[in-house]
Amino acid sequence: FNLTLNAFGQTATDLSGVIEVPEQTLLAIAIKSDVDCHAAVYSLEPDGKAVRLFPNRTDKDGRLKAGEYRMIPSSDRYSIRTRLTPPGGTDRLRAFASTEPLPEPAG
User: Fold this and answer.
1) 94 bridge partner residues
2) Nearest C-alpha neighbor of 102 from the set 33, 30, 40, 29
3) Using an 8 Å Cβ cutoff, are 55 and 42 in contact?
4) In whole angstroms, what is the distance from residue 97 CA to residue 89 CA?
5) What is the spatial distance between Cα 29 and Cα 69, in angstroms, rounded to a whole number?
6) 3-state secondary structure the chain
7) Is 83 or 87 the better-scoring residue by pLDDT?
8) How far apart are CA 13 and CA 89, in angstroms?
């Protein structure tokens, strides 16, 4: 099935399609699936660390309804702000989805 992820904020897209986000940018993410599913969004840092952005302590329910965008963050109770992560390099957003519940991350 199809999963769409869009990032909003002060971004620029280079010729290869990589979205660049300056440090300290407030970021919003819209995610949509064409089927009912369970989703998770991670930020993958250059050092290999994965940070789960969604679901989280505020947005605990990772279910998506078919054809409907889900905004992350969903309220003003928290924000997603980019930061420079040593040793430098490119952070990447990755989204995963399944029609079955996704396992909780280890650690």
Assistant:
1) 42
2) 40
3) no
4) 26
5) 10
6) CCEEEEEECCCEECCCCCEECCCCCEEEEEEEECCCEEEEEEEECCCCCEEEEECCCCCCCCEECCCCCEEECCCCCCCEECCCCCCCCCCEEEEEEECCCCCCCCC
7) 83
8) 16
What does R_g of the chain's alpha carbons equal in angstroms?
14
Question: Which range has highest mean pLDDT (2-6, 32-36, 53-57)?
Answer: 32-36
Model pTM score: 0.84
CA distance linking residue 101 with residue 60, whole number of Å: 13
CA angle 98, 37, 66 (to 5 degrees): 140
Q: Is the pLDDT reported for residue 84 higher than 80?
A: no
